[in-house]
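Run: sequence + magnesium ion -> complex structure.
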Amino acid sequence: MINILNKKISSIELIIVVFDFFLFYSKKNMSDLTLIIPAKNEKESLPKVLNELKNFNFKKNVILESSDKLTIQSIENHDCKIIYQDSVGYGDALIKGIQSVDTEFFCIFNADGSFNPNELKNMFDKIKNGKYDFVFATRYEKNCGSDDDTLITFVGNYIFTSLGKIFFKLKITDILYTYVMAKTSSAKKLNLISKDFSFCVELPIKASRANLKICNSESYERPRIGGKKKVNAFKDGFKILLSMIKLFFKS
Ligand SMILES: Nc1nc2c(ncn2[C@@H]2O[C@H](COP(=O)(O)OP(=O)(O)O)[C@@H](O)[C@H]2O)c(=O)[nH]1
Ligand SMILES: [Mg+2]
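>> structure
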């Protein structure tokens, strides 16, 4: 028997109370996060991604076009909320996704299996105590890497990350990855408008201009599970470049 404030409780009762407290605390933490999952023609990968996420206590919002019947069918019995985007495009889906979040934090999470959910804990630890508004995962620091990069995407990313550093003073080391965790209220202030893959550069540039606190977080990108990559290195690369030029002259 242990005597706490004149109440006699057994050691077993004490252990149960402490255990319940930790369980409550860790669950609360997990439920502070929503994953925003943009998906387009991902019937091969998305069910496997959602299966892997089953043991995590986050909300999962999948954003896709209502015409994408095969992807919708493939996740019918999975634990997630399906949200239809207003128009088309990766950025359009993410803007809709951010509007849909009602938790304190969210994370952009791809539907192709290339993001490792075990890295979320580390990102969450960085953001949860208010030290940062945005945590950008990176494939290009020590202990990081990618099994999905091609020579073209590697070089493209290097060029865009360098442009970000030189012209926008960005401190992020992997601008196009867009595995990003954020404080929802900070992201909602940014007036994001890019409907295509220019979203990848608009987000960090506007976050930095708003003087929000940003950091990097180590990541290792896995190969896509199935289906095809949606990014066209040259067409989308050109749009991203144009968008950066426009943002530069808007400052
Ligand atoms: N809703 C929606 N999702 C998209 C669109 N384009 C790409 N995605 C999703 O965005 C994520 C990143 O696309 P992906 O092709 O893997 O690009 P990459 O690996 O970054 O080159 C995947 O989950 C795609 O399914 C789109 O136009 N609409
Ligand atoms: Mg991918």
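>> summary
Residues 33-249 form a domain with the Spore Coat Polysaccharide Biosynthesis Protein SpsA; Chain A fold (CATH 3.90.550.10). The chain has nine helices and eleven strands.
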